[in-house]
Structures
1.
Amino acid sequence: MISKISGNVDAITETSVIVEISGLYFEVLMPPYALDRINNSHQPGDEILLFTKLYIEAGLGGTNMIPRLIGFLEESDSRFFEIYTTVKGLGEKKALKSLAVSISDLANAVENSEVYKLKNLPGIGGRMADKIIAELKGKLSGFATEEVSEYTGDAASVPTEFEQEAIEILIAQLGFRRVEAENMIRSVMKPESKFESVEEIIQVIFQNRSE
């Protein structure tokens, strides 16, 4: 088992980091949220430490088994992945692709039964979201944060498509955590609000923050 890799960043791709160790180059598959952090903090040549998991991927037709390394920036994220992939039907490849949000955000979503958050993750639909909550709720409290979204998950509280688009902009383009983004959107979406665009919502949020 390869549990850790320490070396220099050779390249960062859309799905992995290439790590150079004494002339050997290791491709380490990374979850999307971690790749975003690496892109913002590392350049080729920088030192990096990754906590890794080795798994075997079947080739075409079930032959030619291919070893793959999955990497995480934190040891706790690696432990989370071990638990996460115990869900039936959620293999390593699908699980890795789904990690577009931080581990704490995902753990919060499971512990709060927030199906609407999980089903919007890459590769996770409504049925798998229900299964993840059913099998993991109560097991992920150690990975969750105390910060709680103002969206409670009930029908009246689930964000509309308009609100969800604004939330994704705050996360993907402006770097906020999901809980932060949801609470900011919730703070300005009053019954009397009459926004005509997502951009207007974002503008009002930042006006409020500067006051």
2.
Amino acid sequence: MDIIPLIKDIKFNQAIWGLPILYIIHFFEELPRFADWATEYLGKPYTKSKFIAENIVLWMLLTVSVLMTLYMPGKAGIILVLSAAAGFFLNMIFHVFFTLKTGIYSPGTVTACLFFTPVSLFIFYLAGREGLLSLTTFILSIVLGLAILPVVITIVHNVIDRGISFKTLIKKIVMFMLLPFFTVSVAMILFGRETVNTFMIYTSPVILLPLFFKILKIFREKKKSNTTL
């Protein structure tokens, strides 16, 4: 079977479903040994519970981004999906760099090289082919691709270090990530996309303020504890 015509027929909105699927495959390659490897070679304690929690959060963010791209108008979903694709490519660089630097296999290298690299580049190619990739979109996706992973890891690790159980963390993820998305989707069905989008544009800065101050408080408390030590 000639695979080239099949690739030519793939659309951006179809290809992006590969991201959450490949993420799961990559996760299972990392799962057995990544926490121990990171503790030894990244120079800080890294428990398996932290590893699992941060990956659940990242996978949920990725899946929500895909759904936003498919079912919500505007560029927000597209930028988030492209930032995930950029993050996949950067993840490959991370694994290859540490494997070459240490001479020790970094768990996740195989799937990052085999799947993340071609799929992330292909998704950017499709975005460009379909007129979705402006210079602004490209720059924002790269910046977010660099920022989202360390931000999520920092927040998740701080939450766990503060004594919040894994079960409680998952409940908070569902409450603050999945429930809002479900609510917005239902509102769009009831009131129309344009009405909901206009409402979100004017209220989102107010809604995001508590989250901003919460993150700021976490960083301040961490800095204070480090100073005390």
